[in-house]
Amino acid sequence: MKTESLYDVIIIGSGPAGLSAAIYAQRAQLKAVVAEKEYMGTGQIAESSRVDNYPGLFGESGYDLGEKFRTHAEELGTEFFEGEAEKITSSDNIYTVSFADGKSLSAKTIIYAAGTYRRRLNIRGEQEFSARGISYCAVCDGAFYKDKRAAVIGGGDTALSDALYLSDIAERVYIIHRREEFRASEALQEKVRQKHNIELILNAVPVEFVGDKLLTGIKYSQNGEEKLLHVSGSFTAVGSIPNTDILQGIADLDKNGYVIAGEDGVTSAKGLFAAGDVRTKSLRQVITAASDGANCIESVRRYLCG
Ligand code: NAP
To answer: Would you say residue 32 has pLDDT above 70?
Structure first.
């Protein structure tokens, strides 16, 4: 079934970048629709336990911050469409987005703000114990490890934030990181140092998840030796991969799959703009995603005015 209306812009993704674009689209009086994979979604921000660096909203949980963005967009009259975008085609300067359920939407422009997903380690036992002890979201699954031992794998902001969150629930939290130095901010590192129940396992590379029906431990290699850490839960936080498969052949991507675009969101595809974590940038934060959404609407406006 094809919807009849032609939109000025289809915003793909309802995280901070997409919702900010929606807010600016309403103010610019553009005919816009936000296509979201999950009903009432707010993107990966919902998985952050605490956001301390968004001006004016200090200490909000990521979930609450996402809900505020969404309510704001809804209050201004944003139209939402639930569906997983599967294909983008263009003809005569009109883009058509086809969704998994067979429906489609057409517009003069697209703002692509589909975000990223968590990278897997691709080691033995990872698939077997996924959702049986292995998780990718501390805020979602942390409560299962009350008074138990849990590990976080990674050394970036996500890993350290996850470890801090878990340290208030679990008996003991181990951070397994492949180097000596952390990539995470100094502020997070300082908080981790102050936690008596967080232990660091450095220069350590996980090689296998082990268990019976449920996860019981992680084998890792450290200084040429293989060791076993007994834990009930493991949270993988080793970076993200952009959701850009459907842009292959449409817009230029860098070697890691990010859409090549500057602050204005302009990509190699005329009329298709990229916002948020999916685009090439040096700082992936809620505030830069929200800023991208605003900038992209300005680019859309200019593009439509010719
Ligand atoms: P990230 O910064 O890319 O860090 C990934 C971590 O995983 C790195 O420490 C990396 O080690 C490690 N790693 C990667 N591949 C690995 C592998 N195969 N085996 C073992 N370790 C591996 O990812 P992130 O922490 O998810 O952060 C992504 C972006 O979101 C960043 O820009 C971050 O600043 C932002 N973010 C911000 C906040 C906040 O401000 N509150 C919270 C969360 C995320 P190496 O260091 O050795 O490369």
So the answer is: yes
Residue closest to 61 by CA, chosen among 76, 48, 80: 48
The one catalytic residue in 101, 140, 245, 254 is 140
pLDDT higher than threshold 90 for residue 306: no
Is the CB–ligand 1 distance for residue 242 below 6 Å? no
Please provide the distance, in angstroms rounded to a whole number, between the alpha carbons at the two ends of the chain: 31
pLDDT digits (tens, 9 = 90+) for 212-247: 999 999 999 999 999 999 999 999 999 999 999 999
Write out the DSSP string of 221-284.
Answer: EETTEEEEEE-SEEEE-S-EEE--GGGTTTS-B-TTS-B---TT-B-SSTTEEE-GGGB--S--
Check 8, 137, 162, 296 and give the catalytic one. 137
239 alpha carbon to ligand 1 midpoint, in Å? 4
- Residue 216, H or E segment: strand 215-222
Residue 305 a catalytic site member: no
| 5 Cβ neighbours under 8 A, 6+ residues apart | 31, 106
Cβ of 240 closer than 6 Å to ligand 1, yes or no, is: yes
Out of 41-50, 58-67, 155-164, pick the least confident.
Answer: 41-50
Q: Whose CA is nearest to atom 16 of ligand 1?
A: 238
User: Considering the entire predicted model, what is its pTM?
Assistant: 0.87
